[in-house]
Amino acid sequence: KTPDHHVPRDPRLIRLTGIHPFNVEAPLTALYDEGFLTSPELFYVRNHGAVPQVDDAAIPDWEFTIEGLVQNPIRMTLKQLIEEYEQITVPITLVCAGNRRKEQNQVRKSKGFSWGAAGVSTALWTGVAIGDLIKRARPLRGARYVCMEGADKLPNGYYGTSLKLNWAMDPNKGIMLAHKMNGEMLRPDHGKPLRVVVPGQIGGRSVKWLKKLIITAAPSDNWYHIYDNRVLPTMISPEQSANEPKWWTDERYAIYDLSTNSATAYPQHEEQICLVNGPQTYKVRGYAYGGGGRRVTRVEVTLDKGKSWALANIRYHEDDYRYNVEENEYLYGGRLDVGWRESSFTWCFWDIDINVADMAFSSDIMVRGMDESMNVQPRDMYWSVLGMMNNPWYRITIAKEG
Ligand code: MTE
């Protein structure tokens, strides 16, 4: 029995670590087949420890605080948050910074466990803009960061990290405290009853089981803020990083905005495609996402290792959820600030018909995405000690049989 025996879980999820803590991703095809919104059953999970147990009856009384460099410290319940603040519902994709780490581990072992390419999921999140709350606490002069802390007690203290205060106060960044996912109460693995959701940034900043927001002059000194979610310079080895703490305490190496990324769901590794008697073309397809609210503007596919590229079609499902100007209403609940509508905080789906005969003459299919600021996925991998933010061209090898 693990400490999480109270948490229901879907057998389709693939465990990436031992029995406990729970770290899982869905099979990539199953994730893709669900479409734009991921069901809570197949949503990836990244837990550092045991899931805090909260009885349903106690949920309205869940307390959290806003403290630190504020004129008006606040202690409030989830019930108050729901009753006293405007609620918004928006689609946001969460991505673990370790997504695609397996490819790094294959080149050189990093300190992290092997994620495939399904450490990414999308939900409609309901909650309150974090800036609305912090405004009420009235930050004092010198306040520059928002530290966040969860209720999960871990070997190195509670899980916590921080964000810049000006991001939290900017409605266009869309940072929120969420209590619902796809219209239902949060599931235990995803932060029940209250979590932070930071659009466009690595999942590690979206603190689950939220208990505290602490306004500070400096970034978080929480162990998990310092020793997790960083990309150290590539020449720093696991041994060197363990012996020299200065590599970890340098806030320049902390990662926030996601890097542009994409992956192929079909074909999968090991999938068999029949060359004779089958269809002439195969619809190669997958997902892509950008970081920091930047929209993916193109996805390209190559069969000759990047000598020539073909342009894929992109479907932006998030547009179905955008402001309907004619009707003068939001297609989803509540206010959404203008800049947010111009941003892209979700993944998109791409596809391209590839001639099966051309595939037969190729040794691999590779894909790369580019965002509106021309951040393009690199050809080469940037290995680092935690194996994070891996985003080189995604490759499916073609092997011929028979
Ligand atoms: N918050 C707490 N309190 N404890 C955690 O272990 N993991 C973080 C983040 N928030 C974590 C947390 C990491 S690394 C990620 S990627 C996301 O939660 C994962 O969110 P999910 O499990 O809902 O997909």
Automatic annotation (TrEMBL):
GO terms for molecular function: heme binding; molybdenum ion binding; molybdopterin cofactor binding; nitrate reductase (NADPH) activity; sulfite oxidase activity. Residues 1-9 have a biased composition (Basic and acidic residues). Keywords: Disulfide bond, FAD, Flavoprotein, Heme, Iron, Metal-binding, Molybdenum, NADP, Nitrate assimilation, Oxidoreductase. Belongs to the nitrate reductase family. The keyword NADP applies. Nitrate reductase is a key enzyme involved in the first step of nitrate assimilation in plants, fungi and bacteria. Homodimer. Mo-molybdopterin binds at C96. This is Nitrate reductase. Signal peptide: none annotated. The lineage of its organism: Eukaryota, Fungi, Dikarya, Ascomycota, Pezizomycotina. One of its GO terms (biological process) is nitrate assimilation.
